[in-house]
Amino acid sequence: MDGPVVVGVDGTERALRAVRWAAEEANRLRAPLRLLHVRSRAAGDHEADQRVRGWLDEAERAAGTGVAELVRGRPAHVLVRRSHHARLVVVGGPDEARDRSAGAVAAAVVTRATCPVVVHRRPEVPDGPVVVGVDGTAAGDAAVEHAFAEADALGAPLRAVMAVTDLLVGGRPRLARDWPDVVEEQCLLLAERLAPWRDKHPAVEVDGVVLRDSPVWALVRAARRARLLVVGTHGHAPSAGVVRGSTSQALVLHAPCPLVIVPQEVSCPAAP
């Protein structure tokens, strides 16, 4: 889809890191960049306005491009509204899981945005893979589509991850001795979900992996040296879900690299 890359600015170092990442991404996508600060205070506070103007000036210098805006409202609500016409929304994620303020804004945006949202917590590994969570749902398929497009545009390998937990057969948990059969079944399912996108992006080197872990920690493990981690926003499969809403919310706090959260019904930006 067309539209700008929108990035939130709040005067923190994490926001400046997000601004720099957003500027590089906007340049790669040949999209305009919007640097957005949202204030909830009433207009007329001159000292506060001057401080915010300083933040926006600093963000403009860090980005080297872009149009800065000061908007009144609630940060998450404004960013969600902007997502309706944006190509991408970028927010700084919490530096630590206990950083509730940054985590709350990011979590609210990823839940309701209508375009892909990037939560920038940790720097990327420039030569690392794009990692994507796969679960066989429409939400998961949207994430896979986006991940393939990103990997193709970046010239990066793609690692597709399926997590397996709480498997049931006839209403009873599977036993440990069933694990080889489980891996075989899930590998076949994973290959099936990836096949259409392999055909559309034949240049992308793909590595599929089935991990016996919770969705959150399977993805955190797989993305420790990744360039991007991509997940969907909701939906789950009976035995191999990795794209539950709770998963994306937890990854806002724990992702070890830039996290891209893709809503179910969104068209991927065309690679430049």
Automatic annotation (TrEMBL):
Highest taxon listed in the record's lineage: Bacteria
Pfam families cross-referenced by the UniProt entry: Usp (PF00582)
Domain UspA: 4-119, 129-263
UniProt-listed InterPro entries: Rossmann-like_a/b/a_fold (IPR014729), Universal_stress_UspA (IPR006015), UspA (IPR006016)
Family the entry assigns: Belongs to the universal stress protein A family.
Name under which the protein is recorded: Universal stress protein
Source organism of this protein record: Saccharothrix syringae
